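quick one before i forget lol
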Amino acid sequence: KALAMCARIGLALHDAAALDDVERAVAAWSALLEVPAWQRAAHAALVNLAIVESRLALDDLGGLEHAAERLAHAERLLADEPALEPEADGALIRVKLATARGNLELRREQFAAAAQQFAVADTLLGSHRLAELHPDLRAHQLLGAGTAALKQGGRKRALELFTAARAAVAAAGDRFPSDADLQRTRAAVHLQLGVLRLLQRRHADAIADLEVARTTWEALLARTAAPPVRDEVALAVSCTQLGNCYMLQQPPQSEPARQLYTRALAIQQRLLETHPGVAAHVTELAATHSDLAAWENTFGEPAAARRHARAAIELQERARAERPDLPRITQSLAIHNAQLAYAERRLGDGEAALAAARRAIELDPTHAATVRICAEVAVAIAAGLGEPDATDRLHGECVGWLRGLTLGTASGIGHLLARRSFDPLRQRADFRELVREVGR
């Protein structure tokens, strides 16, 4: 029991001895499986330890495959001990197992499967007063369910779940005020609420939530000389999302945004150097380079924007080579190319700008921001061609790109077409027809 407690403490503090503690505890409890009077307790302890191992693996100490293997092992142990099934402790273990499986599916980006696991945990929490007795587990389940809903486009449902998770965290905090893992859950809830409110363009509310997340992770990281990878990842994400909020505010707050992006970039570069095999570190660093490219394109130097955009593209191409099946990686690569196109146009290299714009459209012809940037770049280049036929061809290509938006799920196309940057297209019959179609 003492060894199992050491493992749980190791998980909370993420000290270097956590895996050793788990292994020693597993060995001790495995021996007790041979003692009839201890078999039931040993089964429960080993299931809990397998779940702990899976969580450590998801923190990049072992990887997704190891996490999945540990959870499968936990399920086999439960199948061998049916006496756990009807009782509260058996239901409690299954809540932990379903939540752990849901988190694994989130990391795999299998969001429907994740939602199913969190629904299982929700049902179990409704039995034996578990939700009331274990508000920390309730908060974990609600956070995971809300994240799965948000990733599937269910913003209203996600908001309901995140709001409930925040209340559960508050209730658990009254009982466990110094619990580090609970503080991580609180920060994660506020991060997701901030992301959701950013999507809803509620920038002030988003900033308030994201500041709670950022300061909480800063405090957690200051408590240990060897901070856990997931805390550093989460801090970087909270910094980039805060930067996005400041960029999108009216008027934009450029300097706070730049400082936050730069902070995130430093963290992500260090993580990629120390954990080069983790694909998520590659895409996150690429996204921050792209954010900085957008900042430089808006407020800074085009040469710096080009440098960041090229770095983002190089990293994202690496990620795409490993996971060509993930649409979001291809979509992000298109955005990075659009930022490069904008920078090249500002630097006066129209040929390079058009090449990057066409590459972006090829990758993702239905993403509104990508198409808008590329079309604006092309219209600006067309204005300097001085050849009516060449200008007409490039304008026609722009209209084709804009029409492609109607084939996807982009909203607000009419508002986009009303932008003054597209005034040179308004005399074209195909553009006027597109405006009429969108307005119907």
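fyi The radius of gyration is 25 Å.
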